[in-house]
Amino acid sequence: MTRVWKWNRPVTVREVLEDLQQERSIAYTTVMTVLDNLHQKGWVRREAEGRAYRYEAVSTRAAYAAALMNDAWSQSDNPAAALVAFFGMMSEEQRHALRDAVRIVQGPETPEPTQPPDTRPVTATDTPAADTAATDTSSPDTRGTDTSSADTRATDTTTDTAPHTPTGYRPGYPPRYRP
What stretch of H or E contains 40? Predict the structure, then answer.
């Protein structure tokens, strides 16, 4: 397949043979058998040209690599862990390429619409003192800890909403997950 992708056009057995013979000795029938096997597997298509065939790759090398990665990832019993391990094996250059690819797939980011500045005059209801539900006048030491206060807008930040976040990951080692 490497030779077929290298030519980037339909090739004959003779062309592939001559290319391979620059590096090693190989028989015409061996190249013909391999290209026929690739055709039977659906990796190349062929068209008759006289008494010979011209072989052409069905997909690009990049599409083939992507299909291999997708197949391996989909067979994992823990796809998130497989991705973490894969990303940990990447070089910095590969991570930059990954970021670029994600940006391409996601499309251009549209900026958030900006609100025009508020130019109306400030009134008494706009000041923080007017919000009495959030004001606790009991004592400065207990402000924010009084649970009987009328301020029910506080949110609970103790709940961990991140599902199975990997911790302590080192490339080459399986990631550890916290429960």
Answer: helix 28-40
DSSP tally for the chain: helices H, then strands E: 6, 5
> What does the alpha-carbon distance between residue 136 and residue 142 come to, in Å, rounded to a whole number?
9
Best CA proximity match to 7, nearest among 68, 24, 18, 32: 18
Please give the torsion angle defined by the CA atoms of residues 45, 47, 52 and 58, in that order, rounded to the nearest 10 degrees. Answer: -20
How many angstroms separate the CA atoms of 21 and 27, rounded? Answer: 9
- Residue 111's identity, in one-letter code, is P
State pLDDT tens for residues 116-127.
666 666 665 555
pTM of the model: 0.48
CB atoms within 10 A of CB 31: 21
Q: In the prediction, which pLDDT does 94 show? A: 92
